[in-house]
Amino acid sequence: MQNTTVVEKTDHNQKIFSAQNIGKYRWTICSLIFFATTINYLDRQVISLLKSVLSTEMHWDDGDYADIEIAFQFFYAFGMLGAGRIIDKLGTKIGYAVTTGLWSVAAICHAFASSVLGFAVVRSFLGLTESGNFPSAIKTVAEWFPKKERALATGIFNSGSNVGAIVAPLTVPFIAVAWGWKWAFILTGLIGFIWLILWFIFYEVPRKQKRLSEDEFNYIHSDKDETEEKEIAGAKVSWGKLLTYKQTWAFAIGKFLTDPVWWFYLFWLPDFLESQYHLTLTQIAIPVAVVYMLSTIGSIGGGWIPLKMIKNGLPVFRARKMSMLTFAALVIPILFAQIAGSVNMWFAVFIIGLAAAAHQAWSANIFTTVSDMFPKTATASVTGIGGMFGGLGGLLLTLLVQKDMFVYYRSIGKIETAYYIMFAICASAYLVAWIIMQLLVPKMKPLDL
């Protein structure tokens, strides 16, 4: 059997790494952040699956539910800005551990809320603490992977959001039926503490990780433009300075326009299935799980496709842009989800699943544009800025469109109209985002900060 090699070209020489000797410990790290992201989305989705139960028990209407989610989105948005800076300052090991521990406590606290105000408070705490996940994860990927592997690593860990969204409908409704809704929050919240144990056992930054081979360490740091001097320079850049770069705004605007679509799926998909097809709490489990199973394929595939293009000789920026344009186009069929669903519910489920898969493929690549354009020590801060804009986009969409619109159309018995409007917004958001990003950063050149 031939010994395959991985070749990295630099300005002065050529580094050749044996694929058999490089090692795979970086993928152990990827599995840890995948697990954390799974927990992150499991905890945040519990309330959407219990919406009908809590609405009946606490006499909520759609406006009350929207207010609770607005509280989450507001604190998540502004938490992202601070979280990115904190992670860059504390480092991934401590920063990721602190944020995961706090959001697990916040998830458990939902069991003790008894009013709209109480849920708004604990959702605010959950949003603030969960905001640390993606800045931590993107920074970890930048530290542990060379550029050409980052989209794949990001796609894999980001698929944890889909797995969390799959696990939730397959467990939460049945826990609620068997033991009551409070235990659904408690048991899912406790999982975060299992992750913390594994994190402290297996994680350390590459230069301190004794389990990491020298060949793999050299492979991770083989990108020619990421010298130690540039990393040191990147550490000194302020928020204000980062906001002067078109690269920051390209990422932020892309997130602002497309993140709200994912929020919509997370918070309203169970309600769509209940409203349109009159499914019960436990009956929505399989359709919701199918949507997120498809999105898992999109997340990993979205990372693999540009990797394949890069290996075939396409420049990184071109592979990224071509992939993102393809994924933007794959969302458009969601316009016809309700028409197809009028024939058979599963047609709507698969069309929404395709759109969710395209979003996750898009997400794997838009996150990777940060480490494509910025040095490692600035990635969490830029990710936080973009995450804040993404959260604000979700907040504004809920305030300006969803909140009153859903209450109104449900009151006149035409809730399907509200969902059609939302699907039209979903269909157009990615193409608009891609065009703006293309105009701002046509080639996504790395910054020398």
One letter per element, helices H and strands E, the order comes to EEHHHHHHHHHHHHHHHHHH
Q: Which CATH top level class fits?
A: Mainly Alpha
Distance between the termini: 45 Å
Number of helices: 18
Q: What radius of gyration results from the CA coordinates?
A: 21 Å
Helix-and-strand structural type: mainly alpha
CATH topology (fold) name = Growth Hormone, Chain: A
Spans of at least 5 consecutive residues with low confidence = 1-19, 226-234
Largest sheet: 2 strands, antiparallel
Our count of domains comes out at: 1
Which strand order do you get reading across the main beta sheet? 1-2
- Our estimate of the beta-strand percent is under 5%
CATH superfamily: MFS general substrate transporter like domains
Helix content: over 70%
According to DSSP, the number of beta strands is 2
The CATH architecture designation is Up-down Bundle
Average of per-residue pLDDT values: 84
Describe this structure in words.
With 449 residues, the chain is an all-alpha fold. It has a single domain (24-208, 228-439), classed as MFS general substrate transporter like domains (Growth Hormone, Chain: A, Up-down Bundle). It is 78% helix and 2% strand. The protein contains 18 helices and 2 strands. It has helices at residues 25-49, 51-58, 62-90, 92-109, 116-130, 133-144, 147-179, 181-202, 214-220, 228-235, 239-242, 246-277, 285-311, 316-331, 337-341, 345-373, 376-411, 415-440; strands spanning 5-9, 14-18. The chain has a two-stranded antiparallel ribbon. The chain is globular.
